[in-house]
Amino acid sequence: MVMAVMLSGCSGQYLVLDPKGPIGESQRDLIYISAILCAVILVPVLIMTAVIVWRYRENNKKVAYKPKWEHSTKLETLVWGVPTVIIIILAAFTIKYTYDLEPSKAIASEHEPVTIEVTSLDWKWLFTYPDEGIATVNYLKFPEGVPIRFHLTSDQAMNSFWIPQLGGQIYTMSGMAMTLYLQADEAGEYYGSGANFTGEDFSKMTFKADAVSNEDYNAWVQQVKSSSPELTMDGYHKLAEKGTSDEQSFSSFPKGLFQQIVMQYMNGSDMPMHHGNSESAGSDKDMGDMDMDGMDKDMDMGSSEHANH
Predict the structure, then answer these.
(1) What InterPro entries would the database entry show (predicted)?
(2) What is the C-alpha to C-alpha distance for residues 239 and 135, in angstroms, rounded to an integer?
């Protein structure tokens, strides 16, 4: 407990235990349930250890001396029975939450999900909004109370995408497109980061995730479209070079960019990304017409195995 307080820093806020969305809340509940069930075993064992050490110390002549004692049915039943029951209960909860929290499982909602494509780079995050046709770096904005469907990949080393108050980590990997659903139930600014060691500036792979009203979200999209530069393919390759980055926004990006990043190694060798398509989002090039749902079926089968959702 002392270590937890020290690691919490000056904010005094335990992000994982202060969830702001349905996925985060379920994960917090599972943490509490697991901790309580484990405490049912651990606490008595610690207490009994202290009592036994004190009671049967060498100079204590008041306790009975039984050198021939070797078995107690009651004690054996207690020692093996209680942990067995706890493990069965814990397994039942774990199985239930494992299926409930499958990362690619859609969140029940009356609202259509907002799709955001996530690409981890060294050492920055690129977010593309295929429906809105905009892109950002190290900054996310989405409407509150609306499911967010993240498609995730990596164009560099494997990383782990994490917004602690909204849900658990999921890996980003080259040549794979993972899917993660999250939702923020209230407006606010949430901390996001990469949770993997990926080299020199891995600690700077943080981003801000803002949940805002629908009106503010739509106004922000229009502002980005009207005031931000385009992200060209050449611009992307420069962005993908090793190095850190400040927050950036782009009014458009090459059509099918996320799909190209995922598919660039599909021929079994390190094939360079196709450079010919530098058109902005909204064009009808072949790579841009690739269906993400099809990619999910082909490439996301292992998402629950690789996710810490």
Answers:
(1) CcO_II, CcO_II-like_C, COX_ARM, Cupredoxin, CuRO_UO_II, Cyt_c_oxidase_su2_TM_dom, Cyt_c_oxidase_su2_TM_sf, Cyt_o_ubiquinol_oxidase_su2
(2) 12
The ranges assigned to domains in the chain are: 15-57+68-100, 114-266+275-308
Q: Looking at residues 197-215, what average pLDDT do you find? A: 91
Cα separation, 47 vs 80, whole angstroms: 17
Band (116; pLDDT cuts 50, 70, 90): very high
Residue-wise pLDDT for 257-276, tens only, equals 999 999 988 765 444 443 33
What CATH fold (topology level) applies to the domain 15-57+68-100?
Helix Hairpins (1.10.287)
Stretch 81-107: mean pLDDT: 93
Mean pLDDT across the chain, nearest whole number? 84
CB neighbours of 30 closer than 8 A, spacing ≥ 6? 93, 94, 97, 101
pLDDT over threshold 90, residue 12: no
Is residue 182 within 8 A of residue 149, CB to CB? The reply is no
Q: How many Å separate Cα 170 from the centre of its chain?
A: 4
CA angle 261, 111, 183 (to 5 degrees): 60
Question: 114-266+275-308 falls under which CATH superfamily?
Answer: Cupredoxins -  blue copper proteins (2.60.40.420)
Contact between 277 and 260 (Cβ < 8 Å): yes
pLDDT of res. 123: 92
